[in-house]
Design goal:
Elements lengths: L10 E6 L1 H4 L14 H16 L5 E4 L7 H14 L4 E5 L2 H4 L6 H17 L3 E5 L14 H18 L2 E3 L22 H18 L23 H25 L11 E5 L4
Parallel strand pairs: 1-2, 1-3, 3-4, 4-5
Antiparallel strand pairs: 2-6
């Protein structure tokens, strides 16, 4: 209800893969590190905590390339041990990109993880998959993404969790919100997802949304669409630069996350 006071979170833990690690959103304060929507959400939540006379402690355990089962195996125990009052759990995209993935099995693992987090009193923010219908090559995963999203909504309803609804985020049909690899978000994409996440988290507990939080849906200024030849050249360049190395890693059993550890393993104030 709109008359209820806004919930102030004191400890937020983000778990997941490259989406939550923030790939392709360079952190200006730390060269070589990524910022991302979860860091940006933490800044909003910290402002709420400061207004209430406290501070937010924030940990980000996400690691690029991780599949959902790996996120559960490597990050869930740690997340529980940190005693968060908010956890974002966004995973499954790397599984869905692989042919033959059992979406129902993914949903079972996600359901169990959410149940465990809710059992320790944490609010949980899940995320649907993006609609890949407008993206070359990965558009063939659209049916699996849609099936997984139905599971996400069902799990959220069952456990009283929140859903960051990326499938319905029409602004993401604009290629300018995506990084050159067409898999990760550009900085503006991460910024808009953070605004939608803030609106989602704050909306659960009431309180009017600020104008800035509504900007996630605003269309970008018009720009001329590339012609057929330009699109074909861009698609060929993308296949050489990004698709071929991805396929090669799959064949060789390697991951972009090999040797990578969590960028923020401890819950600390944002300036800590």
């Amino acid at each position: 209800m709109s008359g209820e006071p806004r919930r102030v979170f004191r400890r937020y833990v983000a778990v997941g893969d490259s989406f939550t690690e923030g790939i392709d959103d360079p952190d200006p304060a730390t060269p070589g590190r990524h910022r991302g929507w979860a860091d940006r959400l933490a800044e909003v939540l910290d402002a709420d905590a400061r207004a209430a006379g406290g501070r937010l402690e924030y940990a980000n355990l996400a690691v690029r390339g991780r599949k959902l089962g790996q996120v559960v195996a490597e990050q869930l125990d740690t997340a529980v041990s940190l005693h968060p009052d908010l956890v974002s759990f966004c995973a499954g995209g790397n599984d869905i990109l692989r042919p033959g993935t059992d979406v129902d099995a993914l949903a079972t693992d996600l359901d169990n993880a959410v149940a465990r987090l809710r059992a320790v009193g944490a609010d949980v923010l899940l995320a649907t998959g993006f609609d890949p219908g407008g993206l070359p090559v990965v558009r063939w995963t659209r049916g699996r993404v849609a099936a997984f999203n139905l599971h996400v909504w069902s799990i959220a309803q069952r456990h009283d969790a929140l859903v960051l609804d990326l499938w319905s985020m029409r602004a993401l049909y604009d290629a300018r919100l995506w990084a050159p690899d067409r898999i990760h978000l550009a900085p503006e994409g991460h910024a808009r997802v953070a605004l939608l996440a803030a609106a989602t988290v704050r909306g659960l507990h009431g309180g009017a949304l600020g104008a800035a939080e509504r900007e996630w849906a605003a269309p970008l200024p018009p720009h001329p669409a590339p012609g057929r030849v330009a699109r074909a050249r861009a698609d060929a360049q993308w296949a050489r630069t990004y698709l071929a190395p991805w396929v090669r890693r799959r064949i060789e059993g390697r991951s972009s996350g090999d040797g990578v550890t969590a960028k923020r393993p401890e819950p600390l104030p944002l300036d800590g």
